[in-house]
Every structure is written in C-alpha cells, then in structure tokens.
C-alpha cells in the first residue's frame, strides 16, 4: 500500500452545502504501485444550532488519477465537519492525512414542522406552530401572511405579520366572522426565508 499521506490539505467553503478540498500530490515513488486516485473521508461532527451528538456517518468520495482537488456536495448548513485525504493504489489505501476541521455557514431553514389553528370565535383564531426540523442556522423570526377567501374562491387583501423567533403561538384578533382565511407561514435565518407551510381555517358564524 502507499507509504505517505497527502500533504497541505486545504478546505475552501463555497456555500452552506458545498466545499472544495485540495491537497498536494504524494511523490510517485511513495505510491508503491499504480496511482489510482485519492479518497476524501469526511463526516459531520455536530450541528451548530443544536447540541445533538449522534452516530457519525463517514462519507467517502474517490477522485480518480492524479487529481489534487475535489468538491464535497450535499453538506448540511451551519455544521462542523472533519475530513482527511488518502492516496489509493491497486493494493489499497495509504495513511490518512491529519484531520482538517471546517464549518459550513448558515442556510435558510426548512418549513415550520406544523401549523395548527384552533379556538375559532366570531373574530379570532389561535395559531400554534412548531419550529423547523432543520433550522440550518439561528432562527431570527417567523413571517405569517393571511388573507380572506370569499365564496367564489377569490383571495382578499394579504396581511403580513413578523413574529419573534422564540414565540410558538399567536391569537389573531379583529377578523371577520364566518370567513375562511388562508395562512402562509415560514421561518427566517439571517440568510433568508425558508419554505412555507399553508393552512386554512374559518371563523365561526355566531356564538
């Protein structure tokens, strides 16, 4: 098997889900056989938005021939990763380079995990929601938009409300009685807005 590990391993984080890694080639005489390529082992150490330590799954990408760089796609935003590089010949892998640590920046969050509308009265509705399963960063706020829908399914004027990130419920007041409303709800990080969840509910006709 090869005798030495690739040196000067560098990681350039391109965005919240993509990084580029490059390394110096090993001297050919240390390969001790036919150079097949380089393998990059990389794994997530932890998510920076929650303290969950889970089973670590190592990802392996093989770059053929004498390539000295490669892309690592599909990373999770706002996470800490480690990687190392090994050279491969027909017999197997050489020793691993020392581990390199890198962090991905924040991304936009996934949609809120649920949106539930309860306690209809003549002029109010109560909204409850769950935070996104993948915040992909630090949540800064939620945005609620809603509008009435009339009997011919035309949409009325859209109202928008910004809600602090630490809230998980809201009572909407001053609504019209016996009216169907459509709600659009999403979460934000400093990077931008995540995908929205939609729901409909009706205020009651009379007490």
Automatic annotation (TrEMBL):
Residues 5-107, 111-207 form the Fibronectin type-III domain. GO terms for cellular component: neuron projection. Keywords: Disulfide bond, Immunoglobulin domain, Repeat. Transmembrane segments: none annotated. CDD domains: FN3. It comes from the Eukaryota. This is NRCAM protein. Signal peptide: none annotated.
């Amino acid at each position: 098997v090869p005798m030495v590990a690739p040196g000067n391993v560098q990681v350039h984080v391109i965005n919240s889900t993509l990084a580029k890694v490059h390394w110096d080639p090993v001297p050919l005489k240390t390969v001790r056989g036919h150079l097949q390529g380089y393998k990059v082992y990389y794994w997530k150490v932890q998510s920076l938005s929650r303290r969950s330590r889970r089973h670590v799954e190592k990802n392996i990408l093989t770059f053929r021939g004498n390539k000295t760089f490669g892309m690592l796609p599909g990373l999770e935003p706002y996470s800490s990763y480690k990687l190392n590089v090994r050279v491969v010949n027909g017999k197997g892998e050489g020793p691993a380079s020392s581990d390199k640590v890198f962090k991905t920046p924040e991304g936009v969050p996934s949609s809120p995990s649920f949106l539930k509308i309860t306690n209809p009265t003549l002029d109010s509705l109560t909204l409850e929601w769950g935070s996104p399963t993948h915040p992909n960063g630090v949540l800064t706020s939620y945005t609620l938009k809603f509008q009435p829908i009339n009997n011919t399914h035309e949409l009325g004027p859209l109202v928008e409300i910004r809600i602090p990130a630490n809230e998980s419920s809201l009572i909407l007041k001053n609504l019209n009685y016996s009216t169907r409303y459509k709600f659009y709800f999403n979460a934000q990080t400093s990077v931008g807005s995540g995908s929205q969840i939609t729901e409909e509910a009706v205020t009651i006709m009379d007490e």
